[in-house]
Design a protein that fits this description.
By secondary structure, the chain is mainly α. 64% of the residues lie in helices and 0% in strands. Keywords: Membrane, Transmembrane, Transmembrane helix.
């Protein structure tokens, strides 16, 4: 009988085990940071701070637009959806991690399965990074087309120590999201 053209074994088992441990070491802080951030611990506060400092729109921009019957869509970066998305993918990543390790140990986590699982995780985290680094152009006086202020600038520009802490949490969540890709 001929050989199977898709490998069922890992050529570098020790490297794969090391990568699984690294992924576990990244998944735990990602889950922690996104769990802390949900539902809205600091998203609106950082939005308001950026508006006060002139880096982006302010939360009341949406309110004023709706009061004047102008259609406005809250930018993805300041939307509840991206905060919930981040929490959901971090929980999903932990679930996948907790199933991958036993499957790998029992020799049923084949490389082809790994390809699909990791492609899915890369796509989910890529959208998360896109949402966290999104644009805020709803206020024509203060458009923010680059990175958000709390990622692109030093957290020392925040006016209070609490906001500096939130800034550091959001910045570290973004870095960990990029590392998870």
């Amino acid at each position: 009988m001929g050989g199977f053209f898709i490998s069922r074994t890992w050529r570098t088992r020790k490297i794969m085990l090391g990568l699984l441990l690294l992924e576990f070491a990244l998944t735990v802080p990602v889950l922690t940071l996104f769990g802390i951030a949900n539902p809205n611990l600091y998203r609106t506060k950082l939005w308001q701070e950026g508006g006060d400092l002139g880096y982006n729109s302010a939360p009341n921009t949406v309110l004023y637009a709706e009061a004047n019957y102008r259609p406005v869509k809250t930018p993805l970066i300041w939307n509840q959806f991206i905060t919930s998305w981040n929490l959901v993918i971090s929980v999903l990543s932990m679930f996948i991690m907790l199933t991958k390790i036993p499957m790998f140990v029992m020799h049923v986590f084949y490389p082809i399965i790994s390809l699909f699982v990791h492609a899915l995780e890369i796509a989910l985290y890529a959208y998360s990074a896109y949402g966290q680094s999104g644009k805020d152009t709803i206020d024509p006086r203060r458009p923010s087309t680059g990175l958000p202020w709390y990622i692109g600038k030093s957290c020392s520009v925040a006016t209070s120590s609490q906001l500096k802490g939130y800034c550091l949490q959001a910045k570290s969540a973004f870095v960990l999201t990029c590392l998870m890709m």
